[in-house]
Amino acid sequence: AQSVTQPDIHITVSEGASLELRCNYSYGATPYLFWYVQSPGQGLQLLLKYFSGDTLVQGIKGFEAEFKRSQSSFNLRKPSVHWSDAAEYFCAVGAGGNKLTFGGGTRVLVKP
Amino acid sequence: DARVTQTPRHKVTEMGQEVTMRCQPILGHNTVFWYRQTMMQGLELLAYFRNRAPLDDSGMPKDRFSAEMPDATLATLKIQPSEPRDSAVYFCASGSGTGSLRDTEAFFGQGTRLTVV
Prior knowledge:
The complex is a heterodimer of chains A (112) and B (117). Chain A has 112 residues and is mainly β. Chain A has no helices and twelve strands. Chain A is globular and about 40 Å long. With 117 residues, chain B is an all-beta fold. In chain B, the strands form two sheets. In chain B, strands 2, 4, 5, 6, 9, 10 and 11 form a seven-stranded mixed beta sheet that branches. A four-stranded antiparallel beta sheet of chain B has the order 1-3-8-7, with no helix packed on it. The mean pLDDT of chain B is 90.
């Protein structure tokens, strides 16, 4: 069975600083990987996804993620965070037919 | 702008009452999911449907929860009787799953925040 671990429950970053969120997965086949963002009181919005090909994936809002098969990781990055990036971020691995398994989430706080 | 619509957005009910949550998937999507989000458990998949047929409801407590799709434009999640431990945010998501591994993007609604007192 697939699983996703996000080791950091909370991260605090200063506005303008870089951000990296960690994600490790366990999946028996080729993984299909996703990052979602959840703003307070809102549903989940897809930031980016990886299926195959280039291991560096660009997403919306200036985010990117890098797939590293050797490390079973799919870390999310942003070079310079904005106050509006304060939210909770979820990494997920996709099984067949849209079924997703989510990590526990990382809550990001942005300091002025 | 296509989106998944969930109603109600908030629900407060007394223990023992029946609760029904509704979801309108994106038009044309044939896969519908119900997730529950709590602080303790995070996001848990309760059930999912393809072409209105339940494919997996192993995450759902069978004694009190039921999920149905009366038609392609409506999915319901019912709890009867409700208990305080059911307090959570319930998300519906839809996707255009064809069974291919590439069709794995799910679009989420804004959720129903349920409080059982």
